[in-house]
Amino acid sequence: MEQRMTGRGRAGRPKPGREIDLYSTQEGTRAVGNPVRRAILAALREGDCTFEEIVALAGRAKSTVSVHLQDLAAAGVVGSRPDPADARKKVFFLVGDLIVSVSPEDRVTDDLAVYAGAYRAGSGDSNAFYRLAFRTIRVALMQEGVLLDPLLTHAGERIGEELYPAVADPETATFCANIARFWEEHRLGRIEVAGMEPPVLLVYDCFECADLPVTGKPACAFDSGILRALFSHHYGRPAAVAETQCYSMGFDHCRFEIVVEDKPAGDG
């Protein structure tokens, strides 16, 4: 491994660059900068893979992939188990969690002063300073190509776990209305329920992203984590949250679609 410091991606042949992914493991945080290893881990974030599948996705020789898998396993980022279809082979899976990516290609060039200087004393909005701080930190990191989405998603899930009892209701319509009321009361934005099968939430004046630079990519990882935890509890099974529209994509709102998996929550 390159270094020791105490979700989901796209597979494929890696491009040259200086990108670095940070993974959280039981032994500590691991920095992965090698493009082949990053490609392998991107494949495993999509789902468990056999050795042959990883070779095809990484676009490298079997011997090269084998060495990288051994190093990733030794670092506690990757695990394996016997393939049920052929005990002579292994199925590999991700053990560590992706928490941060650093990508020079994703740097934004917006002037930080535009965001840091947006605060106006005496506005009457008690949350204005905290929105300012959150926004400024996000933009400062984006200027350096630091992508916090995985970490923000995990943090949002933790908050969603704590928030669920305050908005819980067996009726999905009432549950969504409770979420909307909580968002508005805490000035996180204004939620409109645009659909119920599946649930679709539109967020206006979004706390997380309304003032962020337009990058063409969704930016509400924190909100997505909260909603994932809330709806997973509500349905008693894992729920995925797809943000299909966002202020950072040039829209005047954020759109979240809830997709519920078939298996009960907690099943492996």
From TrEMBL:
Domain 4-vinyl reductase 4VR, chain residue ranges per copy: 198-260
Pfam families in UniProt: HTH_5 (PF01022), V4R (PF02830)
Domain HTH arsR-type: 27-117
Disordered as annotated region, ranges: 1-20
Superkingdom as given in the UniProt entry: Archaea
Signal sequence coordinates: none
Name listed for the protein in its UniProt record: Helix-turn-helix domain-containing protein
